[in-house]
Structures are given as structure tokens and as C-alpha cells.
Input
Amino acid sequence: MLVLSALWWWTPRIAPLLPSIAQRRAIVVLADDPLRTEAALDLWERDPDSQFWILGGPNLLLASWNQLDQRGIAVSDARLGAMMQGDDTVGQLTLLSHRLPRNVRYVTLVTDRSHSQRSLLIARLALGGRGIHVEVPPDTVLPARLPPENPLRRWRDGLRVQLWRAIGWDGRSLGLWFQQWAPNFWR
Output
């Protein structure tokens, strides 16, 4: 048991040191805002061998596909991945952990500046156990359209991901209950 817990902790730290022959990169955008997708596409132009994943609902996905079309990128491009499931950041990133190909070892996560630290924590917890190193671009690259988040949201979502890792349930239904009965809780 001690060996397994040590491996869980060391795997994301060792992965960047492994040979890069079979390792791939992915740029993942939480596409709730077209400016995020634009920032992610700008990063992808600098690293076109990376995979490009768009996370968001059906309407957001259509808007992102329009942005791809405007840049002359075919939606059928083999480097593209999209997920329309996942109601929130925790749901999207835990689902992504199952969908990313096994050879992806580096993820650049693109979101809003105010959302980046919470998203980074969620992604590192959800993807780090698979040996995937996660980073966010510098703040100068990320759009800044949202007000600062309540720091308690980071704790809440970190605990939700740990719950998901332990028993496979991400606590989403509990969050929906809080939205209904305590709408201003940790906003």
C-alpha cells in the first residue's frame, strides 16, 4: 500500500523526465468564453503537433467550431478532440482523464485568469494520477473577463476531485443541491 501511494505521488513528477518519443502534448480549453478558445488556438499555432481539446456544452462547441473554421482548421482534423459532457469544471476534467489518449503526458489548460488556479488544481488532481503534467499559460496569455473567484471554491472542488478519485463519485449532485437550496454558497 505504501508503494502504491508513493507511485501515485511520484508519477506526475517523473513523467517529464521520461523519453519524449511516445509522449504527446495536449492543449485543453474550457470553452465557456470565445476569448479562451482564441487564446488556446494561438498557443496551438505555436505547437501544431499537440492535440487540441475543447471542453464545453453543445452551444459552446458549435461556437468553437466556428472559430476553428474561421482559422481554416477542419473540424475533422485528427488532432482535435471535443467533449460536450460534464456540467462543470470538475465534471469536464474528470471525464477528460478517461478520454485523453494514453500517450499524452503534458497538458496546457486554457481558461480565464480568475479561474486558472482552481482549474489547475482540479486538472492536476484528475490527470496527475495518470502521470500527466498540467500547466496553465502565463496570465498575460489568458483572458481576464471574470471577477476573482472565492478561494473556498478551490477547496470545495479539490475535495470533490479527491472524492471522485477515492470512490468514483464527483459530488456533482451535491453541488446541484447547493445551487438550488443555497444559491450564494461559495460564489
